[in-house]
Design goal:
Elements: H1 2-11, H2 14-48, E1 59-62, E2 65-67, E3 70-72, E4 75-77, H3 79-112, H4 125-139
Antiparallel strand pairs: 1-4, 2-3
């Protein structure tokens, strides 16, 4: 029974829950960025380079051939997929950079916000009495 209790305490700690929330939100954010890259950014880039889809780019090292009536697939080096994944990574990294930079800017503004100084405390009875005595001595 103590193992279950220990596991429950471990799973309910704040850091584990925060991490779980971060992973879920990160996964959703990853889908948004992947859609941004695939559906918004890459089509214009493909159009600029002549309608080429990066994932279709490959170098055929050995053509397909028929051996004993069995067709053997071509041997290709699919560098286009590598380029696509590299572009995806760069765009995702840039998007995360902008996101973190925005959060840091907001945090900096909070830290730089002028804090109104607290009003000085009212003088104590002793200070008032001493002030009166001082003023009376100045008059003499």
């Amino acid at each position: 029974m103590s193992v279950i209790k220990e596991f429950k305490e471990f799973a309910m700690r704040g850091n584990v829950i925060d991490l779980a929330v971060g992973v879920v939100i990160g996964g959703a954010f990853g889908k948004i960025v992947a859609s941004l890259v695939a559906d918004v950014i890459m089509p214009p880039i493909g159009l600029l380079i002549g309608g080429v889809n990066f994932t279709d780019l490959k170098w055929e090292m050995k053509a397909k051939e028929v051996v004993d009536g069995v067709e053997q697939a071509a041997v290709t080096l699919n560098y286009g997929n590598f380029l696509q994944v590299t572009f995806d990574f760069i765009i995702v990294a840039f998007a995360i950079f902008l996101f973190v930079k925005g959060i840091n800017t907001l945090n900096k503004k909070k830290a730089e916000a002028p804090v109104t100084p607290a009003a000085p405390p009212a003088p104590s009875k002793e200070e008032l009495l001493l002030t009166e005595i001082r003023d009376l001595l100045k008059k003499k």
